[in-house]
TrEMBL record:
Pfam families: PRC. Residues 6-74 form the PRC-barrel domain. It comes from Actinorugispora endophytica. GO terms for biological process: photosynthesis, light reaction. This is PRC-barrel domain protein. Residues 107-136 are annotated as: Disordered. Residues 125-136 have a biased composition (Basic and acidic residues).
């Protein structure tokens, strides 16, 4: 769905819940650091809201001029709120997954021949590969 619209075209669209009820307006698009694919959007809910709720794009689809997600309005409205001027941490990402009842992203998208690229989470750091010196 996101690939059809393009990430920048998502900003400003209405986000609707699983029943087509308006939740808010998409404010930001967050990308996976390793794949570059759009992974999350934030939704603004009114003028005086201090933050924006994070919503995963898993299962999202176009519905007319809106974007529909497979979650209830209440689930989105009670989702974690984090500052939108920075990356979200792995711990924050895990809170979002937990809130929506989703399993965190895993290494299944990473080629098996390069398991050192398999840390989960958008902001997981790739561990340095150990370089052992041969003993003589």
């Amino acid at each position: 769905m996101v690939r059809q619209l393009g990430a920048q075209q998502l900003i400003g669209l209405r986000l609707v819940d699983e029943n087509g009820i308006r939740v808010g307006v998409i404010g930001q698009v967050y990308f996976d650091d390793q794949t570059g694919a759009p992974r999350w959007v934030t939704v603004r809910r009114g003028f005086f809201r201090a933050g924006e709720n994070f919503v995963p794009l898993r299962g999202a689809r176009p519905l007319g001029d809106d974007v529909q997600v497979p979650y209830s309005r209440e689930t989105v409205r009670t989702a974690p709120v984090f500052p939108t001027d920075r990356h979200i941490s792995v711990a924050e990402e895990d809170q979002i997954y937990l809130h929506y009842g989703l399993a965190p992203e895993t290494a299944q998208e990473v080629p098996e021949q390069r398991p050192y690229l398999a840390p989960r989470g958008k902001h997981a750091k790739t561990p340095e590969r150990s370089r052992t010196q041969p003993t003589v």
